[in-house]
Automatic annotation (TrEMBL):
Keywords associated with the record: Signal
Keyword Signal (UniProt): yes
Organism: Coemansia reversa (strain ATCC 12441 / NRRL 1564)
Name the record gives this protein: SCP domain-containing protein
Signal peptide: 1-22
Length: 321
């Protein structure tokens, strides 16, 4: 794995007012808000242009990595080994010669102060001639940036100041590394649901194999019948206990009209949010088939902990049995 020599993969946290030393910051655009990725990259690109450098672009994958790093940092679990792991799973596939690094800075009241400190703290990396793209994430004044060079896929035209909220996404390759399990994009589902739990300081869910198997049985039965039924789901308790799985308590929900992992999270949160955010539940199983879905919450007699609350790949998903 290649990293920028000018930037260690260790986390640097800058608190207090930054000291501006020789940084060129154009008056426009005014960065008077917080977490505006388009405004931040516009400012960075203007400053690169003043140094006769080409513009860089916002990359969706890099921003997802930045969000994952931010959540690990907020939980006090961000390590160099975690970055190595996420590099191998999410960034390395972006190109055979890709190099990447990251930086975490806080606490800032607005994007202008952040960009000023960023350009001082990682000047050589941010104004490198070969820099291709960045990913950004902000949470409560703490900013995470991921930088990358050597990307295989790039947009045909790069705007200095992006006109919309979209970020560049590389074309997906059909390599069999799908994140879909039991008909649901599991990393996306867990990331979205765990983000909601994080807001109330509840631990992230761990996938329980037995609960996932039972959820699959439920949707298979509903799909076979062609309509939602409570008879199948009501058997879930005795089915799981019959497998001698050491579950303390269970709560299941099921329905139809599944559209996507995010839509399922929206339904669960709107109708069963009290259970989804209940800190006494620690494990989960989920499945869908032909639009019928099932989600099972459970708690164990033993403690479990999710080290990857926002997994990017199936390898990142925390599981137990």
């Amino acid at each position: 794995m290649k990293l920028f020599k000018a930037l260690s993969t260790a986390v640097f946290l800058a608190i207090a007012s930054p000291i501006v030393i020789g940084t060129v910051v154009p008056a426009q655009p005014l960065l008077d808000n917080r977490g505006d990725a388009q405004g931040i990259i516009c400012q960075i690109n203007r400053d690169r242009e003043s140094r006769y450098l080409s513009s860089v672009f916002l990359h969706r994958t890099l921003s997802s990595v930045a969000e994952s790093l931010s959540e690990q940092y907020a939980n006090g679990r961000l390590t160099n080994s975690y970055f190595d792991k996420i590099y191998n799973s999410a960034i390395a596939p972006l190109g055979p010669g890709v190099s990447s690094s990251y930086k975490i800075l806080g606490n800032f009241k607005n994007d202008k102060d952040y960009v000023t400190e960023l350009e001082n703290s990682i000047h050589d990396a941010l104004f490198g001639r070969t820099l291709d793209a960045i990913g950004l994430h902000e949470s409560e004044g703490v900013y995470t940036i991921v930088l990358a060079t050597g990307l295989s896929q790039k947009p045909s035209f790069i705007e200095t100041c992006p006109s919309g909220n979209s970020q560049y996404s590389p074309l997906e390759k059909s390599d069999g590394l799908s994140g879909v399990v039991n008909g649901v994009d599991l990393p996306q589902f867990l990331c979205a649901l765990n983000r909601e739990r994080g807001r109330v300081r509840a631990n992230a869910f761990v996938v329980h194999d037995a609960l996932a198997d039972e959820a699959l049985e439920q949707v298979n039965q509903m799909s076979k019948l062609g309509h939602y039924t409570v008879n199948g789901p009501r058997k879930v308790d005795e089915s799981i206990y019959a497998r001698r799985v050491h579950i303390n308590k269970l709560y299941w929900v099921a329905g139809d009209s599944y559209h996507s992992a995010q839509s399922l999270v929206d339904v669960v949160m709107s109708s069963y949010g009290d259970k989804a955010l209940d800190s006494s539940y620690s494990v989960i199983g989920v499945a869908q088939k032909n639009g019928f879905w099932s989600v099972i919450f459970g708690s164990l007699y033993r403690s479990v902990y999710a080290y990857n609350p926002c997994p990017l790949t199936l390898e990142d998903v925390d599981r137990t049995s």
